[in-house]
Hints:
Aspartate Aminotransferase, domain 1; 3 domains; about 40% helix; about 10% strand
Amino acid sequence: MEETGVNSSVTPPDPWAEVAARLGADLFLDLQPDPEASARGRGATLRRTLTEALRSAILDGRLPAGTALPPYRSLAADLGLARGTVSTVYQELIAEGWLTTRQGSSTRVADGAAHPDTAVNPTDTQIVGEEPATPPTFRFPHDFSLGQPCASMFPRTDWIRATRRVLTDVGDEAFAPSHPQGRPELRRALSGYLSRTRGVRTSADRIVLGTAVQSALELLSRNVFGDSLAVESHGLPFHWQAVERGGTRVIPIPVDDEGMVIDELERSDASAVLLSPSHQFPTGVALSPARRMQVIEWARRTGAIIVEDDYDGEFRYDRDPVGALQALGPDVVIHAGSMSKSLSPAVRAGWLALPPRLVDIVLGAKGLREPDASIVDQLILADLIDSGAYDRHIRRSRQFYRQRRDALVDAVSASGFEVPGIAAGLHAVVPVGHADEHTLVHQAFGRGIGVVGLSLFRHPDADPLPNGGLVVGFGTPAASTFTTDLQALRDLLAVSPAARRVVP
Ligand SMILES: Cc1ncc(COP(=O)(O)O)c(C=O)c1O
């Protein structure tokens, strides 16, 4: 190893495994030195091999444009190579345009160094060390897709503090397999929180914890719903699919501007019903007081079960918050919720507040141990609620989304439209004619705007709603882009002939 100046008497069996492992945290370089080369020839080979390896890493996307390379001295030390060798390789690659450097700053991969035709998906390459951070996902430049709150609102600092407190204080038993009902700390905290903020009438022993509304529906359909579940004619297809996977038939019931038409429910043979009474998804209407009473009476009369999906109950922006339906009928309503909208869908934490007679049935169905949910996260969430951090986060978020909603309403009305429905949640519907919905969604895609049409949420056996609509998720855009995203939406609505035709 004359070239390296170190380890001169010991030749490692495969020096290039070392090289590969050390060049950056997660980059594999396929370097094959020629074992037959003379010592002098070996120096040239090393240089050439390193040059080639860096070029191919740039070409195949493992070193994307802008990536800072380590200073040549450090890289040389890391790889056990002479500084001159690495410096020469950097100089050559700079001269060829693969790398760039400026006085006083690091050497970086040049913009456009990798031809797009030759770049491959970084996840296809062999990675040493960690998995790639995120799988590739397509994102619209102006992303109003549904199903997530604004990522920058996630209370990272509170979560870190809560984690530290929990892991400092909790006993070893927390790391054993856990009871399927979930940690009592979170059940206690949630029962207080849900009764304080949503009027839910429950207690820790009636709550069963899990990961999400979706998985809860699958569990309930296997064990609680009976033959058939009525659902709102427009809703989340993957919720219906979860129910059908559990073996329950799904019956769509029309919705109007008072929510589900309960007269139609009464005419069906459903043994259970799934409702989003606070903020119907996706139309955004609230179930009217008369229909609330009517559905509770129907359940009591027929022995049916109501599942209340309270998916964004915390986010109501007018002065007239609507409490949970469960408060009217804790004997017949299962109140289902999760942290997917209030914190993040990446936090897989959900709950069921059950009528007393269903607790053992649901627990029996879950098995002896908690199968899916993170017990450590349950403890962290309990701490967040008990410390008041969760309430603060919700208040902050409500304020943030209220401003977003107001800005959205302003932008949309500046283009001649209204956003009807109650002021709540993380999405709004801009009504357009049916024929125009498809055109507008298409045009939106063409402009890099991610919105979906209302018809996407129609159950295949249900009649269309009287109007079509654009469903705009205003929680999703990043804080840094929201203003320009909104402008793009406004421009779309303002110039689209399809849109103008439906101005009321
Ligand atoms: C209508 C509706 N229900 C429930 C949820 C919560 O989803 P989950 O708890 O299954 O992640 C969402 C989230 O997007 C939703 O839109």
